[in-house]
Design a protein that fits this description.
Number of strands: 38
Strand content: 35-45%
CATH architecture of the largest domain: Alpha-Beta Barrel
Structural class: alpha+beta
Largest sheet: 10 strands, antiparallel
Length: about 600
C-alpha cells in the first residue's frame, strides 16, 4: 500500500474497500456506499461527559495506507475535559472484499465519570427505515416516522436493542451486516433532534449513567461492516442515494425542477432577543419582507408589558405581525389580561403557550391543555382572534414523547436546533433531510393543526447565538431549511434573530448574509413554488418561483467547496435567462430574476 501521513483537519478523502466507497473525514468514516446506495452515514467515536457534552478528540500520528480498493488508517486520540482524561488508538481498515472495520482501544488516564465512551454507527433512515432487519437473529424493523424517545420506569427506551449484530436485507447488494463487539449496543432515533440518522451506540441506557472509570481502566470496541448474499435485482427502491464527496468526480450536480407544492410555503419570520435595534436595522429588516417577529414573554415578568410594547413597535416598523410566545403558570390570569389589553386587534399572527416550568422528561415538556384553554379564553375576551396553540419550547423530542391532547391546539409549535449531537457544517446540512419526517410525524398527533417551526437556531435558543449564524454558511443552510419545511407543509418558520451577534442585522446595523437569503425568499407565498431536486444528496437546495410579481430561481450551494450545477426542467425562456452550467462558490446563494409570465 502507498503510505501517507496527513493532519486530522485535512479535506475529506474518498476511499475504496472493494465495491464499497467511503469518505474519510478526519478520523470519521462517512457515507459508506455500495454503488449509488448509501448504507452507513457515519462511523465515529463519541466521548460524552456527565452533562452529555461532547469532549472533542485531539488527534496525533494519523497515518493512512491505501491502494485502489483497500486502506488502513491508524491514529492516536486524546480527550480532555474537566477531570476526564481518556486516550485511545484507532485502527480503521477497508479490504478489497468489501469489509470495513473501525476499532477503538483506549484507557483512562485519570479517575473520572462519563455518560458514554464508545463507537457509534449512524444509519441513514432512507435505507434503513421500514426495512426488514435481523437483530441478533430475530426479525425487527426500524420505524418510518420518528419514534418517540419513550420512558419506562424512568429509563429512556431505545428503538432497538441491546444487540451485537444487525443484518439489513437489501435488494442490492443482498444484505449488509454490522457486528459490534466490546459492549452491548442499541439504537435511538436521532431524528427527534433533527439529526438525519438512527444511531447505534454502546452501553445500554438501562444500565444508568454516569459511569465511573478508574485510571488505567480499558475500553475496547469494534464495529465491522460486511456485505453478504447475492444481489436479487439492480436497484434498492427508496434507499438513500450516495452523497457526493467533494472532489469525487468532475461532473456537475444536476438539479431537476420538481412538481409544484400543493400548499403555500411557510410564512417566514425572525425573533427579538436583544435590546434596542441599531440605526438602520428597521429599514433593512423591512426590506427582507418578514411576515412576523417572535417575542418570548414570561407572564409574571414585571417588565413583560414594556417588552411587549417595544416588540410591537418593532413589528410595526418592519410591517410584520407578532408571534407571541407566552411562558405561563396556572392562575396567572391577571397579568395576561394586562398584556392582551396592550395589543391592537389584528397584529398577532399566533399565540404560542408553554409552561413556565417546562422541563424535559416531565409532563410540562409539552404544553398542558389547561394552560392553552386559559390563554385562549383571555385572548378572545380581549378581542384577539389569532390562533392559540403550543407544543414544546424544549425540542421535538419532548413533543414526540409527551404528545398534546387531541384537538387542544390551534397551532402546533416546536423549535429546531441542528447542533445537539454534532456541530460540524456537514452534519448540520444533513439535518435538512430529517425535517420533513419530523413534520409528517407531528401531523399524526395534531391532525389539521398548522405547524409553526419556531425558533430555528444553530445554538440552543437559550444559549448565546452560534457565530456562524452571521456567515454565508448559515445563509445557504437557511435557504435549504426553508425549502425543506415548505415541501413538508409547515405553516410558518422563525429563523435566527433580528439583530445582534447571530442576527440578520449585526450590532452596527449591517446586514448579515442570512438577511439576503430571507429577502430572496420574500413573497414566495404569492406564486407557484417548484423545489429543485439534486441527484447528489447534501449538495444543493433550490426552488423555481413562477409568479406574476417576481419570478425567480434560487439555489444554495450546501457544500464547503465550489459546486458545478446543471439545471433540468426549465422552460426555454427560463433557461435563456439563467444560462447554462452554473459554478457556485462555497455556500453561495444564487438568485436569478426570470422573465415575467415564464
Amino acid at each position: 500500500m502507498a503510505y501517507q501521513s496527513f493532519p486530522a483537519g485535512s479535506s475529506p478523502l474518498e476511499l475504496r474497500a472493494g465495491p464499497l466507497r467511503v469518505m474519510l473525514d478526519g478520523i470519521d468514516l462517512r457515507y459508506v456506499s455500495y454503488g449509488e446506495i448509501e448504507l452507513v452515514r457515519r462511523l465515529q467515536a463519541a466521548v460524552r461527559d456527565t452533562d452529555w457534552g461532547t469532549v472533542p478528540a485531539q488527534v496525533d500520528r494519523l497515518e493512512l495506507e491505501r491502494e485502489d480498493e483497500r486502506f488502513r488508517l491508524r491514529f492516536e486520540a486524546r480527550h480532555r475535559g474537566g477531570p476526564l482524561r481518556f486516550a485511545w488508538r484507532g485502527t480503521v481498515e477497508g479490504s478489497d472484499s468489501g469489509r470495513i472495520s473501525y476499532e477503538l482501544d483506549g484507557s483512562a488516564e485519570s479517575d473520572f465519570s462519563h455518560n458514554r465512551i464508545g463507537l457509534c454507527a449512524l444509519l441513514p433512515p432512507e435505507s434503513w427505515a421500514g426495512r426488514l432487519l435481523e437483530v441478533d437473529g430475530r426479525r425487527a424493523e426500524l420505524p418510518r416516522l420518528v419514534a418517540p424517545q419513550a420512558l419506562v420506569d424512568g429509563v429512556e427506551e431505545p428503538v432497538l436493542g441491546p444487540f451485537q449484530e444487525l443484518r439489513l436485507e437489501l435488494a442490492n447488494p443482498g444484505s449488509l451486516r454490522l457486528r459490534f463487539s466490546g459492549d452491548r449496543f442499541e439504537i435511538e432515533d436521532q431524528r427527534n433532534w433533527s439529526d438525519a440518522s438512527f444511531k447505534a451506540y454502546s452501553t445500554p441506557l438501562a444500565l444508568g449513567y454516569p459511569h465511573r472509570v478508574a485510571a488505567g481502566g480499558r475500553i475496547r470496541q469494534r464495529i465491522e461492516l460486511s456485505l453478504g448474499g447475492p444481489p436479487r435485482r439492480a436497484v434498492t427502491p427508496g434507499a438513500a442515494r450516495r452523497p457526493l464527496p467533494p472532489g469525487a468526480d468532475d461532473g456537475a450536480v444536476t438539479l431537476t425542477v420538481g412538481p409544484a407544492l400543493t400548499s403555500a410555503p411557510p410564512a417566514l419570520g425572525t425573533r427579538v432577543v436583544s435590546g434596542p435595534w441599531p440605526a438602520g436595522a428597521a429599514e433593512r429588516l423591512r426590506a427582507a419582507g418578514l411576515a412576523h417577529l417572535r417575542i418570548d414573554l414570561a407572564a409574571d415578568d414585571p417588565e413583560a408589558g414594556e417588552r411587549l410594547r417595544a416588540a410591537l413597535a418593532s413589528a410595526t416598523a418592519i410591517e410584520a405581525d407578532l408571534e407571541l410566545a407566552l411562558h405561563v403558570r396556572e392562575a396567572e390570569a391577571a397579568p395576561l389580561r394586562d398584556l392582551f389589553a396592550t395589543l391592537p386587534a389584528g397584529v398577532v399572527a399566533r399565540i404560542l403557550v408553554f409552561a413556565a416550568d417546562a422541563a424535559e422528561l416531565e409532563p410540562t415538556e409539552t404544553t398542558p391543555s389547561a394552560l392553552v384553554g386559559l390563554v385562549r379564553r383571555l385572548a378572545r375576551g380581549a378581542g384577539i382572534v389569532a390562533p392559540v396553540g403550543g407544543g414544546s419550547s424544549l425540542g421535538f423530542v419532548a413533543l414526540n414523547r409527551t404528545r398534546p391532547s387531541p384537538g387542544s391546539l390551534e397551532t402546533l409549535a416546536f423549535p429546531v436546533c441542528p447542533t445537539v449531537h454534532a456541530a460540524d457544517e456537514r452534519s448540520i446540512v444533513e439535518t435538512l433531510s430529517a425535517q420533513p419526517t419530523m413534520l409528517e410525524t407531528a401531523r399524526t398527533f395534531a391532525p389539521g393543526a398548522p405547524i409553526a417551526v419556531t425558533p430555528i437556531t444553530l445554538a440552543a435558543p437559550d444559549e448565546p447565538p452560534d457565530r456562524r449564524q452571521a456567515t454565508q454558511f448559515a445563509a445557504a443552510w437557511a435557504v435549504g431549511c426553508a425549502i425543506a419545511l415548505a415541501t413538508a407543509g409547515a405553516a410558518s418558520a422563525t429563523l435566527f434573530e433580528a439583530t445582534g451577534p447571530g442576527g440578520l442585522v449585526d450590532a452596527e446595523g449591517a446586514a448579515a448574509p442570512t438577511h439576503a437569503a430571507l429577502a430572496a425568499l420574500a413573497g414566495w407565498t404569492e406564486g407557484t413554488v417548484r423545489p429543485l431536486h439534486a441527484d447528489r444528496r447534501f449538495t444543493a437546495s433550490g426552488l423555481l418561483l413562477r409568479s406574476t410579481a417576481r419570478p425567480r430561481l434560487l439555489i444554495a450551494n450546501l457544500t464547503a467547496g465550489p459546486l458545478a450545477l446543471r439545471l433540468d426542467g426549465l422552460d426555454p425562456a427560463e433557461r435563456e435567462a439563467v444560462g447554462g452550467r452554473l459554478e457556485l462558490e462555497p455556500y453561495a446563494v444564487f438568485e436569478a430574476e426570470l422573465p415575467a409570465g415564464a
